Model the fold of this input.
Amino acid sequence: MLDTVRQLHMQVFRIGSDLFVQRGELGLAVDQQSVQAELQQATRLLEQIVSAESSGISDEQRDALKALWPAYERKVADAAALDLHEQDFEWDFNLTYTEQLRELDALLEGIATSLSSTPEQQLLYQQAVRIQYMAARYTARAYIGALHTLDQDGYFDRDLNLLADDMDQALQQLSQAGVSSEQLKPVSQRWRYIRGRYQDYQVNLAPMVVAKQTRTIVDNLLELARSLSG
Done:
């Protein structure tokens, strides 16, 4: 169940990144159907979570997921369906969408950390989610304007260059915990390639590079996390 929860958690942020690329590249790199397919996949994951018995998830958490999802799903579907040449996002999109992401993130993080796993596995899953979130923040800034983060503690509101520092530390922690450099190589190589984009992310933006490399990094982190469960 942990894998399903973290997959959904990551997917929420991947959808955001794809939505912003769709808007910014006028559908040439990511089209409406691609965003809708990602959203449908996320909805299937959600259904697996809320319908599973003896999963370690409380009834309160299930009810919260079922309550939050329809508005989020509608927001994404409506935004993806806009005419890219004629229609802009609604004026308060960044604010309302960010708040939906914040609520889903807090809920899914709480569920995931309550489920049984090794520290290394939990860290791998956590970093897969967080680097995908970084890509969503980065592509939003490049294409539609910054998401509405707040001046408060917690990774959701941390500056992107500080989140990049966190990723550096997580890779170091994993290495110290016994995850081999060979296992981490597909992640660390690509991370080094885009790491500098987060150091001065307000100029010389390269959203397509970040989005593409992040997808591969995340998939490798998830695969590695799954391999540790056996």
Remarks:
- The CA atoms of residues 124 and 225 lie 6 Å apart.
- The helical segments are 2-24, 32-51, 59-81, 93-114, 119-143, 160-176, 181-195, 207-229.
- Residues 2-229 form one domain.
- The first helix runs from residue 2 to 24.
